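Handout, page 2. Input:
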Amino acid sequence: MRYDVVVIGASAGGLTAAISARRFYPGRSVLVIKREETGMIPCGIPYVFGTLERVEDDVLPVERFLEPLGVETLTDEVTEINPNAKILRTASGLEISWEKLVLATGSKPVKPSFPGVELDGVYTVPKDYRYLKEFRERVNEADKVVIVGGGFIALEVGDEIRKLGKDVTIVVRSRLLRSSFDPEFSEMVEEKLREKGIEVVYGRVERILGDEKVGGVKLVDGRELPADLAVFSIGYQPNVELAVKAGLKVTRYGIWTDEYMRTSHPDIFAVGDCVEHRDFFTGRPHPLMLASTATFEARIAGANLFKLQIVRENRRTIGAYSTHVAGLTLAAAGLTEEAARKEGFEVIVGYGKGPDRHPAKFEDTSTVTVKLIFSRDRGAILGAQIAGGKSIGEMINILALAIQKRLTASELYTLQIATHPLLTASPVGYQILQAAEDALAKLRA
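Output:
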């Protein structure tokens, strides 16, 4: 079997890479190899425990996207890549040759190493359909669930399980969402979680309690938290085994790529969670595992497979996030104030706050808080954080673009916007403009 392009992996990155490859090079044959017959929509996984009725409701319809484009799919596991011969082999014994290869092998949850992790009732949160089916059934049977971790997935899963009426405790070593938000936003989400009946406990896990089944979680300080299930969401690690075996350059953060998403082999590209990402401001490698980042990289890879196109290059990642937890929507892009100061930037911070409808009497009105971080030297935006209702899901995308284009407080202050009573904040009090104005006043002081 021979194909012009073979993509290994069919989650957000692999799917997008295949679509882009087909659209930019319509005469080329494209094959996507997926290890599981049934894949999951990554960002929707937490919602299979509460909002969605079934795990099947979050299935990623790979063939629906690819078949109309003439992209072929194969369910199999790639076991070996030979970069020199441009051949790969699969678990079923197939040998497939390729001209260009895209690795979109994703990531897997970090497994806890505490005593007791082998007990029945210890779970992580992988992108695995069968595993999640069993996990959900066990959640339905449980009364008390302890979740270890303070990131997006830990909070989202905890919030969803609480909707089922379960007793939920979240154990976190430091503050919630620390890598993406400054302390005042962490406090907002903690307050909302507590209002919903979720207990937030600060501490470090020593061991999982129980004989054959989970009975609780013991912390280093001696506290014991009763539990029927212990869920660990303590990070993900890139799937780089194939790349390592193939002799590609791999770092502790993932597969090395250049600005066109090429690996150390010029005809092998890599995208998504399996890749080393570099910070937009510092250029240093950092862990960043987002479906939105994977698709951004996949579009670059797909466009550049056979012809380098300078306008489609990866100029490093800013990290743009959003989540909805306990009725509160949070979003962020770029550096936090804490991270910016740690990097040595001298910063000015601007705030804007107000309702996202005008007048604020409409039923779906929420209070939106915007925090913008600017460099003091030229007023360029470094980061943004927003809390409020669902309207901020698109507001953060405006600010992500502003960061990529290095807009200044003055340019944001004079941003021309569209407003409508039912859809946005008042033009007089649009929160992004408020925050830019606040920062400008401080810059001129």
